[in-house]
Design goal:
- It is built from 12 helices and no strands.
- The chain is mainly α.
- Helix 7 (about 140-165) crosses helix 9, helix 8 (about 170-175) runs antiparallel to helix 9 and helix 9 packs antiparallel against helix 12 (about 245-270).
- It is globular, with a radius of gyration of 24 Å.
Length: about 280
């Protein structure tokens, strides 16, 4: 009986810790939503409340009137989608080769991941800027996409390599015994099992590019080409005073695409198993 009570208490403690962690993660977003709908009088109050007493859409109208949010969102969407698709398209065959043919290639790929993630942005921005300037890609969305692909590719390769290794090689061997060629085996057997990993990696690359600020700030100078995170800084005054209502409204809108993409794709991320591989 004492062991049962101990197990139950441990389970209750785990759930309590999980709920506390979820509340910790949700607090900034909930406060952002609350601020986005508060009028100026409530934002200036010395006694803030969670729920706006007089909710308003004025902050959203002011945000769209003051800054080109739609154009910036379009630039961010193009850059994020292009970077995610390109990174996954490049990393998938490399991950397969790294996982199935271990050796110097696998060691070099692992070293590349570790080294690339160790360097901060500040150390690489000057040579990166000079390279893009030589290629005439400064102040270009294409140049920004190229930077995002290079920056996310090592981690994408690392993620996909783990997914490839999780697919039993015996499945490919069985397909070969049944007479399937290498290409058909990859398309019919391996690719469906890798789909959840590809989706998760693409989601990672998309969210990383969508939220990225530093490279976009340095490389994009024309206002019409700036991405959404850069445009959000325009709600800060010359002395660093934030126009809090419109800023919160614009930041709330900027978080929605990531939430929508994750909500749509989360089933693909969590639902991929190898159960279908043994069906007759």
């Amino acid at each position: 009986m004492s062991a049962f009570r101990t197990s139950r208490a441990a389970r209750v403690g785990q759930y309590a810790a999980l709920l506390a962690y979820l509340a910790f993660l949700a607090f900034p977003f909930l406060w952002l939503v609350s601020t986005a709908f508060k009028p100026a009088s409530e934002l200036a109050s010395l006694h803030p409340t969670w729920i706006p007493k007089d909710p308003t859409l004025g902050n959203f109208r002011q945000a769209f009137d003051e800054q080109p949010l739609l154009g910036a969102a379009g630039n961010s969407l193009v850059a994020a989608v292009a970077a995610a698709v390109t990174a996954v398209a490049v990393a998938t065959p490399l991950a397969y080769a790294t996982a199935r043919h271990r050796g110097r290639l696998s060691s070099a790929a692992t070293g590349w991941v570790v080294i690339s993630q160790a360097f901060p942005f500040v150390l690489v921005i000057i040579p990166l800027f000079l390279i893009l300037k030589h290629l005439h890609l400064v102040n270009s969305v294409v140049g920004l996409v190229l930077v995002y692909v290079v920056w996310s590719l090592p981690f994408a390769l690392w993620m996909l390599t783990g997914y490839v290794r999780a697919v039993p090689a015996e499945l490919e061997e069985a397909a070969a015994v049944d007479g399937a060629g290498r290409l058909r085996t990859l398309v019919s057997v391996t690719a469906p099992l890798l789909a959840p990993g590809v989706v998760a990696t693409a989601l990672f690359a998309f969210v990383t590019a969508w939220n990225e600020f530093f490279f976009a700030l340095v490389l994009l100078k024309t206002p019409e080409k700036q991405t959404l995170p850069v445009v959000l800084t325009h709600f800060l005054g010359a002395e660093g005073v934030a126009d809090l209502g419109p800023l919160a409204a614009a930041a709330f809108l900027a978080t929605l695409p990531s939430l929508v993409v994750f909500a749509v794709l989360q089933r693909r991320i969590t639902g991929g198993t190898l159960a279908g591989a043994v069906k007759s």
